[in-house]
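Slide 14.
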Amino acid sequence: MLMEETKNQIPGHLRQDISTQETTKTIPSRYNGKSIEEIEIDEKSLNNTGQAIRPKGLDFDECVQYLNKKGKEQYGNHFAIHPADYEIIFKLLVYAVKDQKNATKLNINLGKGILLSGPVGCGKTTLMSLLNQFQPKEAKHVMKTCREISFDFIKDGYDTIHKYSTHSFGKLGNENWPRIYCFDDLGTENSLKYYGNECNVMAEILLSRYELFIQKKMLTHLTTNLSAMEIEEIYGSRVRSRMREMFNLIAFGAAIKDKRR
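Slide 15: predicted structure.
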């Protein structure tokens, strides 16, 4: 019954696209059928045949409850997932758990990053932060505000661009793997001068990470309240063109309310 109540709160056009019995009740994933409270299950566990246990999927309603629980732990008891956001959350979960079937239906490319767009206060930063709860270690992203990066540039100069691009690799076991960043609030930083030389820091970082996306499959995520035209005006047509290749656009509606009020 609870699943039906949740399903009825998902916007109508999304229900039309995905609400078959199989896809509405579960999101196929790497996890087995245990409770969402045990989401960090040992993925190396074996069944009695010696083979890895096959995933059974995640229940969307349980995912929302889990996000509410983690959100309250991280942001306080005032935190709450709004039913108006279920469409956005479903898309983000489909991406996080690599549900190819629903990703295809929703035109989400699992090999690209996420560009989460929406008005100020709609919850972009919060959702991208909580999304890490559903991702394996190698896919978790580091949240970094664009304002923080601008301050790094003032302090460290052009090394900052390398820090978030060519030097953005970590160790996973014995392998080097591209570090995934979510650059938060694109557009809140300014073009800065370093020893008299002006630099659009985020434009340079995005262009460098685009090259690494092509060469090394380095993923990047962004949040912003800028429109496509504003992005082109601030960062140039070259950046905007490459962003089309790098990101899946997931956008809140313009009428969404500021949740900070």
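Speaker note: Confidence is low (pLDDT under 50) at residues 1-25, 29-55.
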